[in-house]
Amino acid sequence: MTEGWERRLRDQGFRITPQRQLVLEAVEHLRHGTPEEILVEVQRTASGVNLSTIYRTLEVLEDVGLVTHAHIGHGPPTYHAVDEHTHIHLVCDRCKAVQSVPASRAAGFVDALEAEFGFRTDISHVSVHGLCADCKDRSFEPEPDDPL
Amino acid sequence: MTEGWERRLRDQGFRITPQRQLVLEAVEHLRHGTPEEILVEVQRTASGVNLSTIYRTLEVLEDVGLVTHAHIGHGPPTYHAVDEHTHIHLVCDRCKAVQSVPASRAAGFVDALEAEFGFRTDISHVSVHGLCADCKDRSFEPEPDDPL
DNA sequence: TGTCTGCTGCAAAAGGTTCGCAGCGATGTC
DNA sequence: GACATCGCTGCGAACCTTTTGCAGCAGACA
């Protein structure tokens, strides 16, 4: 688990609680998790934890820079720990598979946006949608009903 | 307004209704519109139109390829007509301003994803988040409460 | 050990989207 | 032009995710 997370919280005036530790562990374990998924993971250890606590905790952990979230389209946001390398999510609109790609692959694009429009991109915040290699070749087949 | 929209609908077995015409006009007029904003625009002409009709109509119009939607983060999706040039939305996380950039600016990035991962990107579907030129320079000031 | 105040669980509210249903009206036919 | 069909709409309720208010609990510090 991210070392120094306790300091991170305490330094900003937050308290250390079991719930916060469990949420952080869950996020790191899941790598990509929606609040609901994080709740389930946390409840494997502490069944009494409430969903609203998950939301409030994620907000706090994001405040102190221990986690971030990204949007992958219609669904709820997914959270992940910040100690991992920054990455981009490639979301397949057909099979819903999520693939992670180093953010460095977008460096040229990001630099161009900054140079041309003065826009400083947070590339990891929103996912890239499209068709994955597998689905691209199968696009004539009927869509799966609910691949999740 | 997009010519041939009636044919587009009829060919797929859909009916032509005033509501569908108004929604399409609203989307084209607004350029970027959430369902709620589209409702308001439509109601300037026909006050009786219901929000659920907006949702259902947008779904139909998207089915036949007359509109598409994109996600700009937390909020609801925004719809736009497909006859415009494909573009990317740059969303400022601070002032919420949305800037449109030709999708061609991402060509290199898109091509790289296809070459390296076989991923065919629909670059316009999800917005790019970050800080616009103005906010980048003012990032030490307090955030505006609600810039909308 | 005790006090203070932040944090949590619970329940209700809020916001956005979907659904069921009855009636209306666009379409094709006569 | 009138008629029958069934797709579309308006309405209200349901749903799902996220937020909020509140009372009680518990972490931090003395």
Tell me what the structure shows:
Two copies of one chain form a homodimer. Chain A is α+β, with helices and mostly antiparallel strands. The first copy, chain A, folds into two domains: 1-84, Winged helix-like DNA-binding domain superfamily/Winged helix DNA-binding domain (Arc Repressor Mutant, subunit A); 85-148, Dna Ligase, domain 1, CATH 3.30.1490. Chain A has six helices and six strands. Chain A has a three-stranded mixed beta sheet. In chain A, strands 1-2 form a two-stranded antiparallel sheet. In chain A, α2 (18-30) crosses α4. In chain A, 32% of the residues are buried. The model of chain A is unreliable at 142-148 (pLDDT under 50). Chain A binds chain B through residues 71, 73-74, 77, 90, 92-93, 99, 101, 105-106, 108-109, 112-113, 116-123, 125-133, 136, and chain B through 71, 73-74, 77, 90, 92-93, 99, 101, 105-106, 108-109, 112-113, 116-123, 125-133, 136. β5 of chain A pairs antiparallel with β6 (128-131) of chain B, so a sheet runs across the interface. Chain A binds a DNA duplex (30 and 30 nucleotides) through residues 10, 13-17, 19-20, 35-36, 48-53, 55-57, 60, 76.
- Say what the CATH topology of the largest domain in chain A is: Arc Repressor Mutant, subunit A
Oligomer: homodimer
Report the major sheet of chain A.
3 strands, mixed
Task: Give me the side-by-side strand order of the main sheet of chain A.
Answer: 4-3-6
Order of helices and strands of chain A: HHHHEEEEHEEH
Number of domains of chain A: 2
Name the beta content range of chain A: 15-25%
* Whole-number mean pLDDT of chain A: 85
What is the helical fraction of chain A, as a range of percent? 25-40%
Greatest interface: A-B, 33 and 33 residues
Over all CA atoms, what is the radius of gyration of chain A?
18 Å
CATH class of the largest domain in chain A: Mainly Alpha
DSSP helical segment count of chain A: 6
